[in-house]
Amino acid sequence: MSINTVEPQTPGFVAAVSAAAGAFFGLFVGTAQGSGLLGIVIGAVLLGTMGFVFAGMAEREKALRWIIFAVFLVAGFALGGLSVALVGGLFGWFAGWFIFWLATSRYRAPLAPYLTPGQVLWHYTFRVIAGAIFVFLITPILVVMPLSFNAQDFFTFTPEMLRFDPAGYSLKHYEDFFNNPDWQQALWNSLKIAPMATLLSVGFGTLAAIGLSQPHVPFRRAIMAILISPMIVPLIISAAGMYFFYSRIGLQGTYFGVVLAHAALGIPFVIITVTATLVGFDRSLTRAAANMGAGPVTTFFRVQMPLILPGVISGGLFAFITSFDEVVVVLFVGSAGQKTLPWQMFTGLREQISPTILAVATILVVISIMLLTTVEMLRRRSERLRGMSPS
């Protein structure tokens, strides 16, 4: 027998692990319905019983999984209509897959055969914890996006939306954003401030990172700590300090003052990304260029910059996102003439509850996803250029 061959698991083991999974999911469902403890009990009993009953029926896995899926789908439809039926169907599909995944020991297939049960348990526990953290972080964002298509002026899902009735959905909040002069002025202000702040952040941050990467620079660690302090110090403290300083030198309430403030917030991101790129930079290339007669400026633009460009662009994108989404500092440093998009959203939440905020939030989320995807692509390209990953 091959060392990778694994035996089917006992009904007791499948029932115990299935009950733990059922209790985990039951906690969320029960909490949403007002009783987390009841959800834990029902989820544990339901999935544990299914695991015990179906553990010895692996030869009929395909048919049983379809039956479980259909039962949960019908039960969900009976309890809450089409939307709950979809959730029930997804849970039924997962329950059927999970039970037979345990019963047939398929969970051991991708793992090394010498791992102990404790190591196997930690392997999957770590992934469950990471997945739970991901769900907690991403769920609020995913909830906002469908709400932005609400046909009513509500911040909650209407019965028509839950029934997937086309009458419950509308683009009127997006139309209000593109037709409302207040929102368009705020968007224009953000588009005027963020690019300029990004250019300053990239310029100063790149030069600072290159300088601090030189081993002969004294007090490098202390200088680095000071330069990245804006991303460590609470934002409200930085905003208050900028307000008192800028008001003394006449920059408070001006366009240039807001740009400088946002540039100060973006510089740490550029320094960190460019410094990380410079870790794998071969300094013999700059020495070779100098030996060939190239000056410092020519060496920088012809030799060094092409290799660190992915890190520079990544830092610039982070600086742009920081400036475009920032609201606290602009409240202190800016004036009514520099009201940015996040400021307008904050005002809308405080003074007049408008669902247009949900449409704007969705647009910002889409833009952020596109920019972060670009950052990831640039990171991989940088690793390939430095020979840290295969092409």
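The above is record 1. Record 2 follows with the same two-line structure.
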Amino acid sequence: MTDLGLQHFSCAEMLNSESYILATGNCMAEQRKQRSRLWLWLGLVALLIAVFFTAHYFLRQRLPVREAQAVYEDLSDTTPTNGRVEPEHSYSFSSPIPTTVEAVYVQEGEHVPAGKLLIQLNDTDALAKVAGAESAVQQAQVGLNAILHNGTQAERQMSEAQVARDQMELTQARNDLKALEKLQTTGAASPSEVAAAQQRLAGDAAALQAAQQNLNHRYAPGDVMEARAALADANANLAAAKQTLAQMQIRAPITGTVYDLEVKPTDFVQMGALLLQMANLKDERVRAYFDEPEIGSLRVGQPVTITWDAKPGLSWHGQVERTPITVITYGTRTVGIALIHIDDAAKSGLLPDTNVALRVTTATVPNALTVPREAVYPENGHPVVYRILDGRLVRTPVKTGMFSLTEEQILSGLNAGDWVATGSPTGQPLQDGMEVQVVQ
């Protein structure tokens, strides 16, 4: 086929020929074909432009964000901390004297009835001390009886005999004096002899008075008090010795579990050495350590949730039994100690002296409108959220209330069901009007 210029030249020549009509028809057909090719190219260019803009629209860069919905729910403010489990009433037994362990009748972790013999200690020394204390009591009682009865029987008999002798001597001295006084009237006795008889009579009277005093009032009131005190001391020593002897047999005071056993047969134990501990493990509590700023929010009766790493998936429940009454240094922390009663300690073995985690519910708002805390941003001292509307972010000021560890209460600015952005996986800050794409 010839080019366009030659085709036009040929047609012009054919206008002068006899085949004018036929040539004219061929020329017009050729022109229509050329116009068709032009429109085809124009349509192709338009299609490419449309494809380009469509692809640009759908493939343009949008910020990926995560979203959350504002919902009504019960919101609780909780305070986490740690603590140590302990029995409400624990019984510890120690050796009362240095001795040896004769027998052990229980194993650690065993549940035992009240009154069961758990440990027998060697009681030889304790028996000897009881016997010595009983002898001391008897001696003290005898001494007190002697004082109360003005001496022993032998002493009283000797005093009575002395009084009788002194009475006889006084009677004799009186008779001698009378005889000498008669003789003096006749000049048969000298005045000196009468004076000597008078002195002897006075001496015998004094001796009789002393003997009678000794017979009836041998001891002073202070002697009675001293004797009574000596008897009281002896009785106290006896009671202590008997108590020590009783402690040589360790018996279960309650029905409970032996959770700590420190000795075995033939062990030598010093006075005060721990032998075992037992308790009713269905009645336990937690000694919880709260940092000083958290103490003010604690109240008796607040509910508590308890978890233990040794048993993941399990939790126990309780309540604040006693709030802190002082502040102490606990490691690197300044804490107050609160007691937490465990309501369901018996449901699964929560052992004494284990370390647990606690969460105390200090406040509750029922049916609060909430969003995740990461959806609330402080801007210029005021909280805002970014709602998602038609694929764009809308900066929305809000008023917030109470918050928990994960949720925050919205008092105004949002409605239930609104979707808000909680952040971008890329870490890019959110901006008002930004186009976004929601991702999981």
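The chain is about 35% helix and 35% strand.
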